[in-house]
Amino acid sequence: MASWVTYTDAAGGYSLSRPAGMTQNVIDGNQTFLFPKNSYFHWPLLDDARITVTVGPSCPAITAGDTGNGPASFSLNGYAFTRTVGTDVGAGQRYLEVAYDTKANGVCYHVDFLDHGTNGAGFYVDDAALIKRYDAQHAVDQTAVLSALNGIVGSFRLLAPAH
Length: 163
Description:
Jelly Rolls, three-stranded antiparallel β-sheet, seven-stranded antiparallel β-sheet, 20% helix, alpha+beta, 2 helices
């Protein structure tokens, strides 16, 4: 985390740290941090993975289908979070969504991770040994991305209100 950079959203009232290699954009009015495909994933399974932070009066529902792993409540750095996990598959695609919500002063801070990728290397190669190797590498890649997500959520801080 030594090479991470801190992003501060004064209007949203929060800050967080992220790996320096991530790019950031505003998508649909929300701050979004993108995991560069070629830095975090190996061919042929190059996922689209992003974290979007939404600040608003209520916490949005997650969009991925099955929410068998949530919600779970926990405390982190003095903030009460709720974590919800959703997964979905369809037409050779798979989705993983992990949402972290915390509320303060009537505001919801929704940190949403979405990973969209192909459901296995078998869509790209026919060799069973290569499929096994690529799928195993993808599991390692996803673990690294989820570790980065946990670090980002762990760095989340509310800004002190202006006086």
